[in-house]
Write a structure and sequence with these properties.
single chain; alpha+beta; about 30% helix
Length: about 750
């Protein structure tokens, strides 16, 4: 009897033990770092950061200004830098670098670079460590607006730390008696003229000597304590064999605010270990709020590595004053404002999954973000499309309205919907001065003809499809908030996708101003009327009216035939307007899934379109195939650009068992979860469970389902069902349940669904 009691107590303690496990250890920040210009396995860098932190930190293998700041194949590290980069294609901003140098003082980035190997490297969300071949060790952990570094030098060898001011005007000042360096950097492409990032660095060891230098001519000024120049930096020398800690904080507002932030965020931690423990606790809390069980160790590593990346962007761009109130320097008008601001995100990528995931995990932050969007519009004159940190106008579409509408329909109502619609109306009826997504390229033709014409606007077919979806979001928000004028206006254009469909070829196709189709059509040809893809990829971008697309294509069977062919057609590439193979083309070929190019955004939702037909089981099988074959936690972890959390959020949501095909509605489309059990702890105190019974690599098909104990045949689930808490139970099997969920009501939302 006593032995049975002990066993029962041990079994009861197991769930509590699982909760205490260091889930952060599963997340590998080297995921996706084996990338280059010609081939992306993620185009990531080993980010050390808190969730949505204002600053992140990363080791630097590339030269100053190189978009590929860290490449897995590199053999030397040049420094450890403050980072914000959301894509190698746009570079970075507000960067400065610290680097330990053992032996002879070497300041230039090429000369100070130290050799390393990955077997002496640790890369986690809360902690980065590397021991160089010269036996110098760097450790790194972060707060939201600062970092704590520790440099350990070999015995009896001169010990230096070099500060590099990067590639624009910078300034430094050294305070030897305070063991402190202050300064600023101004680097960045999309910044106001008065932009400065002020930093303060405090060391815990006295300086033996010091000096300034600049990286244009590598000129050193020993004993000098102040310098302003392009690439101005500093160096300090400690006693040989030192172990030196440095606390760093930065501010976009002022040098005084940087000092305040240093005390707010790092003043409470006496040691490096204390700072790291705090970071580890924050990440573990987040990871335990999305607790998955029942998978392999590899699946757990992939899931939590992706969950980490899904919670990095957008970066906070606000700071807290001495009274704890938020305020910020605006990257749009260069002035200081009260409140919250976020930046570093391209909505063309992230409206699809990263922001919908935030509505589940971070509704409070999402609410602040929505108001920040409208504040940014007031300061900039335009809704952001891709901020970095100011507006770049990158890519296409006006997807801020998707974010706003998605938040509203999911009960996050922290903003004035009339103000949002006014801002969107301005966006939709004008073309701004920056990029393809600042206002609307081809907006006049879109309203006059019902489509964007080619060659007047490159990417025209893609633009029409995305504008129609955005107009649906405008319609949806207007309808829900009683804005009749806008509801009627956008109702006229949200079906414009139909004007791009050519029934002769069966594809969405480019059109001329006179209404003619472009000649010499080839569905395998990239570019021209298609953005970063071809006709196969853009056929499916009708998120809001999949049933209408089915009807347009001649009914369910022709639709299914074409959708099947997406995954079985040869991976042929006609480089077309690009004139050469670009990395997205290579990644599609490497994926070996026909013309399905999961490595880029336009077609990532296509798998889930089977849920709008009588064959939803195909979505279940294909989602599991993509997750198993195209993602892992290693350096080759992604099938293309990770793109500010979108690629990772696709995996996280899909692994949980659902996906956001149409943000702006309150439905998620059900797929096939990876894990036997997923427990989502929500901000409101509720818990939502997804149980996939008999789940394994072969049993990918849903046989039956219950929601809170009641039979459930729908291939979708409402956001409100998740937020209310409860349990979705899926019985899994190795063969499709072909007769399940065939009623119209079982299919997800479509405008044209009866």
């Amino acid at each position: 009897m006593k032995q049975q009691l002990i066993i029962a107590l041990l079994l009861a303690a197991l769930p509590a033990f699982a909760q205490q496990k260091d889930l952060v250890a599963y997340a590998n920040t080297l995921q996706g770092t084996n990338s280059e210009y010609a081939l992306s396995n993620g185009n990531t860098y080993p980010t050390t950061s808190l969730p949505f932190g204002m600053h992140a930190w990363s080791p630097q293998t590339g030269k100053n200004g190189d978009g590929w700041k860290y490449q897995y194949k590199a053999t030397t590290i040049r420094g450890f830098q403050q980072a914000h980069q959301c894509s190698p294609w746009v570079g970075d901003y507000a960067v400065f670098t610290l680097m330990p140098v053992a032996g002879e003082l070497k300041t230039h980035e090429d000369e100070r670079a130290a050799a390393f190997s990955h077997d002496r490297e640790t890369a986690r969300p809360d902690y980065y460590k590397v021991t160089f071949d010269n036996h110098t060790t760097t450790e790194l952990t972060t707060t939201e607006r600062g970092a704590h570094l520790r440099f350990s030098f070999p015995a009896r060898v001169p010990a230096h730390v070099v500060l590099d001011g990067y590639n624009a005007l910078s300034g430094v000042r050294i305070y030897p008696s305070e063991r402190k360096i202050t300064g600023y950097v101004t680097n960045g492409r999309f910044i106001p003229k008065n932009f400065r990032n002020y930093f303060v660095i405090v060391f815990d060891q006295p300086f033996e000597s010091f000096g300034t230098w600049e990286n244009v001519h590598n000129r050193q000024l020993k004993g000098n304590d102040t310098l302003e120049a392009v690439g101005a930096g500093a160096y300090i020398t400690f006693r040989p064999g030192s172990k030196v800690s440095a606390k760093v904080a930065s501010s976009y507002i002022s040098a005084e605010q940087a000092e305040t932030t240093l005390q707010q965020e790092l003043g409470r931690y006496r040691s490096f270990t204390d700072t790291r423990s705090a970071s580890q606790k924050i990440w573990n809390t987040l990871f335990r709020n999305v607790l998955v069980e029942g998978g392999t160790q590899e699946e757990l590593a992939t899931f939590y590595s992706c969950l980490f990346r899904a919670n990095l962007f957008s970066h906070q761009f606000f700071e807290y004053d001495q009274n704890g109130k938020p305020y910020y320097f605006s990257p749009y008008d260069g002035k200081v404002h009260n409140g919250y601001m976020y930046t570093d995100n391209g909505f063309w990528d992230t409206f699809r999954a990263q922001f919908p995931l935030n509505t589940i995990l971070h509704p409070t932050m999402t609410g602040r973000y929505m108001q920040a969007l409208l504040d940014a519009q007031q300061q900039c004159g335009w809704l952001p499309a891709w901020s970095f940190p100011g507006e770049t106008g990158g890519m296409l579409g006006n997807h801020a309205i998707s974010l706003l509408t998605d938040a509203w329909v999911k009960g996050i109502r922290t903003f004035d919907p009339k103000q949002a619609l006014d801002a969107y109306f301005h966006e939709a009826m004008n073309k701004g001065p920056w990029g393809g997504a600042n206002g609307r390229a081809g907006w006049k033709e879109y309203y006059q003809l019902g489509y964007v014409a080619f060659p007047e606007s490159h990417g025209s077919t893609s633009q029409t499809l995305e504008y129609a979806y955005d107009d649906f979001c405008g319609y949806q928000l207007a309808k829900l908030t009683g804005q009749t004028f806008y509801a009627q206006l956008f109702a006229r254009t949200m079906l414009n996708y139909k004007n791009q469909y050519d029934s002769t070829t069966g594809f969405m196709r480019g059109r001329k101003l006179n209404g003619d189709w472009l000649e010499n059509f080839d569905p395998y040809e990239w570019g021209g009327p298609y953005t970063e893809g071809n006709a196969w990829h853009w056929q499916w971008s009708v998120f809001h009216d999949v049933r209408g697309l089915i009807n347009l294509m001649g009914g369910e069977q022709p639709f299914l035939n074409k959708l099947d062919s997406l995954f079985t057609a040869p991976p042929t590439v006609n480089v077309g307007y690009y004139k050469q193979m670009i990395h997205e083309m290579t990644e599609m070929v490497n994926a070996k899934m026909g013309q399905y190019a999961h490595g880029n955004q336009p077609v990532q939702h296509a798998i889930y379109l089977y849920n709008y037909t009588s064959q939803p089981w195909k979505a279940q099988a294909l989602a599991r195939k993509v997750m198993a074959n195209q993602y892992n936690a290693g350096e080759n972890g992604f099938p293309g650009d990770e793109d500010q959390g979108q690629m990772s959020s696709w995996y996280v949501m899909s692994a949980l068992g659902f996906y956001s095909v149409c943000p702006g509605t309150d439905e998620y489309v059900i797929g096939s979860p990876v894990f036997g059990k997923a427990t989502i702890k929500l901000e409101n105190g509720n818990t939502f469970l997804v149980e996939a019974r008999n789940n394994n690599a072969q049993n990918v098909y849903i046989q039956s389902a219950t929601l809170n104990g009641k039979p459930y045949t729908h291939h979708w689930i409402r956001h409100s069902d998740i937020m209310a808490g409860g349990t979705l139970v899926l019985e899994m099997g190795d063969k499709p349940a072909t007769g399940r969920g065939l009623a119209d009501a079982d299919q997800p939302f479509s405008l044209s669904r009866p």
